[in-house]
Specification:
This protein is α+β, with helices and mostly antiparallel strands. Helix content is about 40%, strand content about 20%. It is built from five helices and five strands. The protein has a three-stranded antiparallel β-sheet with strand order 1-3-2, covered by helices on one side. It has a two-stranded antiparallel sheet with strand order 4-5. A hairpin with a 6-residue loop joins strand 2 and strand 3. It is elongated and about 70 Å long.
Length: about 140
Amino acid sequence: MGWENERHQPRVRTGDPNFAAVLHAVGIPLDPNQPEVTIRSERDGKQKTCWIFMPTSECGRFSCKMVQAVWGDLDWIRDNPENPLAYAMAAMMNRHRFIDNAKTSGIYYEILNGNSMALIKASAPQAKQDKILARIGR
């Protein structure tokens, strides 16, 4: 059942840019009449962008309901390694992991001396920093 057969089905709205990116990556199109909407909360005045998708991909292989059912399911991703949806979800999960690791990994200094280079964690004890610097001749 492709997009053409579901013109009157309810559209799917999401405020999650990661979910929206995965829906679009597997071919589920944005609603051509209203692809996005900005909502302002009556309570706190904050704005939120939502993307509005058609219920299925044009080829009919993927639906928003199906993507939502397996969203974030590592077992499903492992069991379906050749599925384009698994690739898209794994990429999004990896993106989150990289960002989280970057936030918690701490600051490193890059020290260059000729052809030598050292990375020294800013929080490393002074004795360790001195030892590393000595190895590159600084």
